[in-house]
Specification:
By secondary structure, this protein is an all-beta fold. It has no helices and nine strands. 0% of the residues lie in helices and 56% in strands. The strands form two sheets. Strands 1, 3, 6, 7 and 9 form a five-stranded antiparallel sheet that branches. Strands 2-8-4-5 form a four-stranded antiparallel sheet, with no helix packed on it.
């Protein structure tokens, strides 16, 4: 099994709908080892981070929020991962901001193939 560390980034997250930031590739298990949200605006914003699972049955069949409507002050960053989050093939990490173009995100991911 090969392990590869990757950085997944997205600038100016949408304020309209949850935006896909990372999708686990086929035949891969991924581990999120870090996640940073950065408010680059001059006002307070809120952010959501959701995991959309590919599974429809079993213990990981529910889509869940890692954070929901968390406030991030202007010019500040928020580390949202303490520990690790394991994702399976085709799972998706999605992010939403309360203001357009105000939020940048970065996730550190280890992919196991």
């Amino acid at each position: 099994m090969a392990e590869t560390f990757k950085l997944k980034t997205r600038a100016s997250i949408s304020a309209v709908a949850l935006e896909s930031v990372y999708t686990v590739p086929a035949s891969t298990t991924s581990v999120i080892v870090g996640g940073m949200l950065s408010n680059k605006s001059s006002a307070l914003i809120t952010a959501d981070v959701q995991i959309v699972t590919n599974s429809t049955t079993g213990e990981n069949a529910d889509d869940v929020y890692l954070i929901n409507t968390v406030q991030i002050p202007q010019g500040s960053s928020l580390e949202i991962i303490e520990g690790k989050v394991v994702l399976q093939e085709s799972d998706i990490v999605k992010v939403l901001a309360s203001a357009s173009s105000a939020l940048d995100v970065a996730f550190s991911v280890m992919e196991i193939t």
